[in-house]
Specification:
Number of domains: 1
Distance between the termini: 41 Å
Largest sheet: none
Number of strands: 0
Radius of gyration: 13 Å
Structural class: mainly alpha
Helix content: over 70%
Oligomer: single chain
Shape: rod-shaped
Order of helices and strands: H
């Protein structure tokens, strides 16, 4: 696994986590 791929997956995971949290807050209202 290259360094670039490692960083890409970390950013992708963070983006998905933020979206899930955002949608959870919207539904939780």
């Amino acid at each position: 696994v290259s360094v670039m791929e490692n960083v890409y997956w970390k950013e992708l995971f963070l983006l998905v986590f933020v979206w899930v949290a955002f949608l959870g807050l919207q539904i939780g209202k």
